[in-house]
Automatic annotation (TrEMBL):
This is Enoyl-CoA hydratase/carnithine racemase. One of its GO terms (biological process) is fatty acid metabolic process. Belongs to the enoyl-CoA hydratase/isomerase family. PANTHER family: DELTA(3,5)-DELTA(2,4)-DIENOYL-COA ISOMERASE, MITOCHONDRIAL, ENOYL-COA HYDRATASE. Keywords: Fatty acid metabolism, Isomerase, Lipid metabolism. GO terms for molecular function: isomerase activity. Pathway: Lipid metabolism; fatty acid beta-oxidation.
Length: 262
């Protein structure tokens, strides 16, 4: 019997991305993942997070750029609180199983950081809670000038647990991250850009164009050099100067060998 069933939880259902409220479109080196529950403002569910993880597991190796966006009037309203009615989800009473349950959901976000792809969040309307964390899981963020973020979880008695706390602190610093999380306030696009939470802020009517231009610029760079450079940049915060210099040498020598071999 499924461990969740033994705990009174429903067994995990295997759903396709479409059944989970996602749409995946792959066009050559670009994959677009659309949160597709516009009637629910793209509120996110356990099934949606698991489907995101499966997309990461099965993404074609030819994909270099992944764009994440929301259908309808907003990027995402965050967690669908309706999931918790009737005792669904982890309860905290079965630590090992509940820990594994949450880890499976986090896997829907962690793959977006893989060096093999560059990920772009196209944010309009608002990105709340889990939606904000999804944007933070991406490498780059393009926002409309009327969009905003909100880390809502503390106001709901929860904590941000979908990988968002680390990138938030890394981007804005500890004190600003505490301000954003512990007040659960809105962070408008202009402030987000100033804090480094958005690389581009554009009028709503120009979002698609801005994203397309960014994707084109990313694809114009040598693919193998882009992978190596993203890997280097990700390692940098945890490395000493000497360690990072050594990492640069290793990556560069690999690039030079590859170039000589044609």
């Amino acid at each position: 019997m499924d461990a969740r069933a033994e705990q009174g939880q429903a067994p995990v259902a295997v759903e396709t991305p479409a059944e989970a409220g996602l749409r995946l479109d792959v066009a050559g080196p670009v994959a677009t993942i659309t949160l597709d529950r516009p009637d629910k403002r793209n509120a996110m569910t356990f099934a949606m997070w698991r489907a995101l993880a499966r997309i990461g597991e099965t993404l074609p190796g030819s994909v270099r750029v992944v764009v994440v966006r929301g259908a309808g009037k907003a990027f995402s309203a965050g967690i669908d609180l309706g999931m918790f009615s009737g005792g669904g989800g982890p309860s905290g009473e079965h630590p090992q199983d509940d820990d594994r349950f949450i880890a499976e959901l986090q896997a829907g976000y962690t793959w977006l950081r893989r060096p093999e792809v560059v990920t772009v969040a196209a944010v309009h309307g608002y990105a709340i809670g889990a939606g904000f964390q999804l944007a933070l899981a991406c490498d780059l963020r393009v926002m409309t000038d009327d969009a905003w973020y909100c880390m809502k979880e503390p106001a709901l008695g929860l904590v941000p647990d979908l990988t968002g706390t680390k990138p938030l602190v890394e981007i804005v610093g500890l004190n600003r991250a505490m301000d954003i999380c512990l007040t659960a306030r809105k962070v408008p696009a202009a402030e987000a850009e100033r804090l480094g939470l958005a690389e581009r802020v554009v009028p709503a009517a120009e979002l698609d164009t801005a994203v397309d231009e960014l994707v084109s610029a990313l694809l114009a760079v040598n693919a193998d050099a882009a992978v190596a450079t993203k890997r280097l940049l990700q390692q940098a915060p945890g490395n000493t100067l000497e360690e990072q210099c050594a990492a640069e040498r290793r990556e560069q020598l690999q690039r030079l060998r590859s170039m000589r071999q044609g």
